[in-house]
């Protein structure tokens, strides 16, 4: 009954060969909590260095050919040069993320601010982002709306939704026809009473109002306690509106830990729905991204561990015996159906993946290979002086 | 700055005069936890006696002219006689609730069950409910879908949504043109892995697919921890799909305590959005219902306390100085806007309501008046023998 | 680096050979939610039949030589006969659980009830339990205190603690010198405002006041959302007061699902602390018990799956390379230390355990072996008539 | 039945006259989230200016005669001068808080760090804090331990407890005989897997091990979702170990909003236990402190609102008819007992407090009086140049 990993199904290998995970440039800058940002030796100082770090992840894993940028954190004079640098490194630019939370004007909101002038400024920021998209070949404009309020009565909940709808329409109109708007939701933080897009329902309603190229981003850390995330994955796929994942993990709030670290079984269940609903294929349009903070661990190894965790969960999901699963489900065999799923989960997929990697000229164990490469020590020695990148840079 | 309660605004009194809250018949039967159902002296034994108890609540408060039925718990031979009995008592039949959770066939689901035969049975149950609606003059068919799974893999999440959509369409087609389908969501329980309608987004998607007479029911106890409920109220009003409330309160899960008992400020914030979005008027179509369990406290006083809590929160919401609130919000005066809201909340509204009640021939203090009436002792003495109503009856 | 499972460490096998898990008699009766108890064919009707079912679990797994009783659910005329029946079946009686939640007198509490007469009744119930212990050779008296309140002000929180302390002292005094009092805590349910022993801190304080033979019971489903349970395991071990586990799993509240079903990684982390703090050995005094409800799945296979899940998690915990772990921890190697742990977790332990079982004359796959045995069909056919056991019986 | 506020009980007024609330110096510096710290005009730049701001709160409310310092944030050359400055302003120095979270060495912990040298550094920091205490007349050394881990396996949970116990003993030994050690707990943040003092039980165990002058600090925002805080208040009072409150409020995590803003009824219930357990009196040893962030609202008005919220909740708690409450509790009158409590809560206490303030030469409405005073504008105009204080300063 155990899935065979000795002679793996060619379809499984083909699916794995197509899988890609997008890295966030900001994972290679310093990050932290409100209490402290710990610096790390060798942290990238420029968008160019961030791409170099990201390229290390791809070189070792073959999984991460794209890098998301964050504007203005990754502002450069010449985006064409940046894209060319990426190409030289074997990667390319992915989604462009707009920053709506680090300007003093946004204290009471950006796209939902009571003052039309502030909203216009926030909307205008996306013109720059779309320009970056054109210059870098990016097709995904990604918005996380940090807006919200801290106190009951502080602002009108309904009016903020109306303002948001209007602002989003103006941004959507900026896009070229082949571009998408990816709209993220988040339960709370950085505001603590209302959040203007707190859940998938709100994000989806706005996307439906905008048009087909507006899609929802599911960040795995952005839900209320105890929320069943794979259920939401299915809902968004059923509605045809799952645009992207922001992968990470959490035990408490938006902890932004390494994906799969807090609950590897949850990650497997999510990937199981992705596979079971045929959304793993690149043509599905789901952009699988990371969005994490490596506050205390080294960043490049942290990203390598992260993409490996996603790959392992995916491989296990691909091993699920779907005929057996369906048969047990139809028979109402509760424990039997569960056992089919767990059988795949309990399989040690690492030997299969090691062989798969070697067959593609990659290290069998990318995590150890990177550690052994001396690259971490090299950048620590070289990147002296200048200012290390971080969320504020 | 404090809202005046000495010479109340006639508009406030007019709004209060129009307010109604629907009582659930099952609040007058015994209820409990999975561990124990405590019986109480005087508990109603028949649907007719439940109506008599509900009529006591209305007689003392003037707030509760309607009673929801639950089929089959309130099955009688002659629904016309039941409706006439209600009319004699000064109340009428409200929503009809269909029961989908107490048949052995529903172990793995009702409207979402893998077996089409079980789904047909569950759908057919609504034919009976619609007949009851016709016989009693009810216009609201209310569905709480208890369906879900306990174990990962137990059933296909997507397939269950598809089955649900199909089942709901068949039920919707049963309705007469003036009838509504009210669709409730619930975070979890009685299943503990997936719930087939766990959140407002899922309920709304199904309602949108059904048509305009499908509306969402918001039960205040059916959310993930920390969820901002008034935000959802606003979303559903903005979408034109808030069909009804099931009022109660909770500290932990779906505790079904007396509304306003656990967090009176939350109830005020909810009613504040209702008032602020002009949804208090009867024409708004929002049916304000209770759905509670009086496990350890006496039931009629428990219901009286509940409708009074809603009335007090409503009256406070009506006192909010909306011009001042808007001005502070537009000025970005965070503390000032909050203060306007809190000013109404901190007002002791009870004298105003006492006077309002007396002006309508009602007791100033309905809770104490009922206690003093001796009715509780009377039914305890009279209702001897027979079987007390409960969830299983 | 991967732990070797081909030539397993004899110490691992020795530790596995000593491991035992206690089964609850009530897992073999029907259970459910407040909404519905689904009956199942073949459900045991008497304490004797429950022991027969439990013996099936032990016969197939070699893991479950003890069965907890629950008084009065398992009340029989002759406890000596019951114990002898157990012995004939190859098992024995474990902890005795006292029931404090199914008497009408306990509506407002049992050991904490405002009325001393009710408290005396609840205390007196333990005299019967201790008699059962003497008659069956049990040494553990297990108390789950369901007491609490539903409404603020309902009772005095402090007074209830004082009453509880007094009641517990009287119960503790009933014990023979070789007996222990195991005191469970629970976050909420069946009451929804206060719980009189809601957390490990409260339980421990009462145990410290009672004496050395009072120990804390950790039920894995009895915590607030997001609680780190393995941390509590360590705290109780450090204090020398971890008396027992009630194993189960949950996604939401006290769901009482099969242990390891909701979060297998959590179960592994718990067992990792047990192993790492040398508390797996029988002499540690920790009684590893199950406490679950098989509401929709068959009960004997459900219990088999449960003990297997605990065994698998234990085996993985035994595989952790503790020298490597300690070295990485001392070096401050965050990702490396985590990798050591995950290495054991990702190992497919099932082949090792299959071989281990066969070496002891047990089926390699107990779950499938039981299914294939026809026992489930046999008891369904035989156990006709009579009343199936359930929480109320 | 409504509590009389027209002719207030002299005992109530006497209790209110004795009430004091300690302000945190850091509330007058800028604060924010990990995403953004918004600056505000007029923010204090030095510890001396923070004291001036705090003195404004006391001058308007008569409630806040003490100010907590945070070392090193409030490091000055001459603490005697700082204390004298406080005295000139009509306030004095309260607790001294030690900072254990802003040094690069503390990335993996401070008092629990694997490396003894780092622990020694963290312990040594308290020598400075005790010197500040001696120089300023402070008697409370307050520790919030931010230590924890982000990943399973990262460090040994048990070893960290042992190190913590040792570190705390060394710190306790630094204290003069009249000084107390106040030990705070927190559910999570800034670490996201384990927290070394995550709950009241852990803090209490360490305090019990240290000695009588070690007491627990209860921060109202530092609990798991749904936790009943007033229950913990009672537990700590019963154990004689409630040393201090850190007041604030939250909807989600440690939001650090204005106390009473998120759930005013919770604040009332907490103060009700304080009053009911006779812990309001200064001799009780409970230090009532604020610990909040005014991220978007002005700071001095935010603190004024905060102390007023505590005062209002206290006054309502003092109004509770304790004889009636006890009688209803003893009679098992669930709804009646709750009604006694709610009666006090629903009372509009503001007129009584306005009169009380005026009788003491204070403004009837301190919040409006401060706004009208022009002080906010004055400091905004005067405090130009220099660096505004914040958590990092």
Question: Summed up, what is this model?
Answer:
By secondary structure, chain A is α/β, with parallel strands linked by helices.
Give structural notes.
Four copies of one chain form a homotetramer. Chain A is an alpha/beta fold and about 400 residues long. Chain A has two domains: about 10-320 and about 365-380, TIM Barrel; about 320-360, no CATH class. Helix content of chain A is about 45%, strand content about 10%. Chain A contains 14 helices and ten strands. In chain A, the strands form two sheets. Chain A has an eight-stranded parallel sheet with strand order 1-2-3-4-6-8-9-10. In chain A, strands 5-7 form a two-stranded antiparallel ribbon. In chain A, helix 4 links the parallel strand 3 (about 90-100) and strand 4. In chain A, helix 2 runs parallel beside helix 3 and helix 9 (about 300-320) runs antiparallel to helix 13 (about 365-375). The relative contact order of chain A is 0.15. At the A-B interface, helix 5, strand 7, helix 6, helix 7 and helix 8 of A face helix 5, strand 7, helix 6, helix 7 and helix 8 of B.
């Amino acid at each position: 009954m155990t899935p065979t990993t000795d002679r793996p199904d060619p379809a499984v290998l083909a699916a794995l060969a197509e899988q890609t995970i997008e890295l966030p440039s900001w994972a290679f800058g310093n990050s932290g909590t409100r209490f402290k940002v710990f610096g790390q030796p060798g942290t990238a100082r420029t968008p160019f260095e961030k791409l170099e770090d990201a390229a290390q992840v791809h070189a070792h894993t073959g999984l991460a050919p794209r890098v998301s940028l964050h504007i203005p954190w990754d502002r450069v004079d010449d985006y064409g040069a940046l894209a060319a640098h990426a190409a030289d490194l074997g990667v390319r630019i992915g989604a462009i993320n707009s920053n709506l939370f680090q300007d003093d004007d946004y204290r009471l909101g950006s796209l939902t601010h009571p003052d039309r002038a502030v909203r216009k400024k926030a909307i205008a920021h996306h013109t720059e982002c779309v320009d970056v998209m054109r210059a870098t070949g990016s097709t995904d404009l990604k918005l996380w709306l940090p807006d919200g309020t801290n106190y009951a009565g502080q602002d009108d909940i309904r009016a903020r939704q109306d303002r948001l709808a209007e602002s989003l329409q103006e941004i959507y109109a900026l896009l070229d026809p082949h571009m998408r708007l990816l709209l993220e939701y988040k339960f709370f933080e950085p505001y603590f009473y209302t959040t203007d897009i707190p859940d998938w329902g709100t994000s989806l309603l706005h996307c439906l109002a905008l048009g087909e190229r507006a899609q929802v981003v599911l960040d795995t850390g952005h839900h209320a306690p105890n929320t069943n995330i794979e259920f939401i994955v299915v809902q968004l796929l059923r509605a045809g509106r799952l645009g992207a994942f922001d992968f990470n993990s959490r035990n408490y709030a938006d902890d932004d830990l390494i994906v799969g670290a807090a609950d590897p079984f949850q990650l497997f269940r999510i990937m199981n729905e992705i596979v079971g609903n045929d959304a793993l294929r690149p043509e599905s349009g789901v952009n699988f991204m990371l969005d994490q903070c490596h506050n205390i661990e080294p960043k490049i190894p942290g990203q390598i561990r992260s993409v490996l965790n996603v790959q392992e969960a995916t491989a296990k999901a691909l091993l699920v015996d779907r005929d057996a699963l369906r048969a047990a489900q139809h028979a109402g065999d509760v424990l039997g159906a569960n056992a089919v799923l767990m059988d795949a989960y309990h399989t040690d997929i690492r030997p299969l993946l090691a062989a798969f990697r070697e067959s593609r000229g990659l290290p069998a164990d990318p995590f150890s290979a990177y550690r052994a490469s001396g690259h971490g020590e090299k950048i620590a020695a070289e990147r002296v002086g200048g200012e290390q990148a971080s969320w504020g840079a």
